[in-house]
Design brief:
Shape: globular
Strand content: under 5%
Helix content: 40-55%
Largest sheet: 2 strands, parallel
Number of strands: 2
Low-confidence stretches: none
Number of helices: 4
Distance between the termini: 42 Å
Length: 99
């Protein structure tokens, strides 16, 4: 089960507080930012999996903004309580991020 992994207790408490809102189909956005190799993608995947449980699949992961827009506008793709993850870190390399 997704919730079996360790999560810092305060973070878990806060996420449990918003989980009912996610199930009510509230829109929420989380931005995970940090240095290269810090584990941003891993953390984002864990957040999405924690909030959506077993319904979070690779189909809910987008690697381009176009894919993200296509999925959020596709009728009947997202159900109440679903999360969708845009992981565009691969599009940015260190050199372009500095400019």
């Amino acid at each position: 089960m997704v919730e079996d992994f360790y999560m810092e207790p305060t973070l878990k408490e806060n996420l449990n507080a918003i989980k009912p809102q996610v199930l009510k189909n509230w829109d929420m956005a989380f931005i995970v930012s940090g240095i290269e190799g810090a584990g941003k993608s891993t953390f984002a995947f864990q957040l999405a999996a924690f909030l959506s449980g077993d319904r979070f699949t690779l189909e809910h992961v987008c690697m381009t903004p176009k894919d993200f827009i296509d999925k959020i506008t596709r009728p009947d793709f997202l159900k109440p309580g679903d999360t969708i993850l845009l992981d565009e870190g691969f599009m940015i390399n260190s050199r372009s991020a500095m400019s």
